[in-house]
Amino acid sequence: MSRWDEIEDAASGRHLSVMGALHPEDLDGLKTVVMLGPQEPGFWAMFTETPEHRDGAADPMDRWSERVIGDLARELRATALFPFGGPPFQPFIRWATETGRAWSSPVGLLVHDQAGLLVSYRGALGFADRLDIPARPNQPCDLCALQPCLTACPIGALGPQGYDVAACKTHLNSPEGAACMQGCLVRRSCPTSQSYGRLPQHSHFHMKAFR
């Protein structure tokens, strides 16, 4: 088994997917960063059975990520890196674009070759070795003729003009925002998002935290 296959298999065994990798130039002692996100379908069903989800304490998914990715890092002789816990914060958005598997979408949000606009990163693994990275895919937006994300927001808070966060949160906290609480309609409109397999309950979890 190749080193890359070993990493993918170990991540998959913890309901995580490799979302891309890069060779950083600004991390002392680390030559490869492998980014991890929820493995779909099935992530939410797994997560709701974990101690972190059941104990009622704050930040259950972040705490799950720290525990599981920390264990994974020890198993693979890597360094665990997270998008939370700062400041300072690790540059996950920049890393994502440097993997060649995530790009700026027509509405400015990150879009991923497999997760679409529902892309999220639970953490990353930093390796001292320079690992071979698989070939990078094409950007899904290049093949998306209709680009429904541009017009999906019911109040026009997110579109080609940018993102009005205040208007979005006001809508989410109104009765009219109930549909958006099951997952941002812009993110859900992406054809790649629709084939990703994330459950509405998972999106609702993040929308509650956001609003």
From TrEMBL:
Superkingdom, natural source: Bacteria
Name of protein: 4Fe-4S ferredoxin-type domain-containing protein
Species of provenance: Thalassovita autumnalis
